[in-house]
Design goal:
The protein is mainly alpha-helical and about 160 residues long. It has one domain (about 5-155): NADH Oxidase. The chain contains 6 helices and 3 strands. It has helices spanning about 5-10, 25-35, 55-65, 95-110, 125-135, 150-155; strands at about 45-50, 80-85, 155. Strands 2-1-3 form a 3-stranded mixed β-sheet. The longest helix is centred in the middle third of the chain and has 18 residues, at about 95-110. The chain is globular, with a radius of gyration of 15 Å.
């Protein structure tokens, strides 16, 4: 079986994490996988926030409590918040964010890391998280057909 099919078949959602730090190169590889996800007309409506700060992880965990699947946020050494801007793509933002997230979980698996995902679209948790992270206004800046750089899509906190 090839590596991609192996990752798709064997990846599992992880809810308990070891406290070991994650190598920056691996984090960047995961972000790269997210940015190469498909999106309608290559709009790339996603933004990534890499969270290592324990206080921010605690706030994210508290805001996510309405989600049954919030387990592990406090334990994970790194949390990547995948945000989509509905103004960039009002019709396909959810699926674009899901595709980016799926690419990232498969990349994490391929790098020997565990990953879990939590969806909070359209919930009170979404509003709380927007406030916590003061999510920036986003503007479509890249010419059609080009990929935005990881730096354009990512905030480190």
């Amino acid at each position: 079986m090839n590596d991609v099919l192996n990752a798709i078949k064997n990846r599992r959602t992880i809810r308990r994490f070891k406290p070991n730090p994650i190598d920056e190169e691996k984090i960047r590889s995961i972000l790269e996988a997210g940015r190469w996800a498909p999106s309608f007309s290559n709009l790339q409506p996603w933004r990534f926030i890499v969270i290592k700060d324990q206080g921010l992880k605690n706030a994210l965990d508290k805001a996510s409590r309405e989600s049954v699947l919030h387990l592990g946020i406090n334990e994970a050494p790194v949390v990547i918040l995948v945000c989509v801007d509905r103004r960039i793509d009002p019709l396909h933002a959810i699926e674009a964010g899901a595709a980016a997230t799926q690419n990232m979980t498969l990349a994490a698996y391929s790098l020997g890391l565990g990953a879990g995902r939590i969806g909070i679209w359209g919930t009170e948790a979404e509003v709380a998280i927007q406030k916590i992270f003061k999510l920036p206004e986003t503007v479509r800046e890249s010419p059609e057909g080009l990929r935005k750089s990881v730096e354009e899509l990512t905030q480190f906190r």
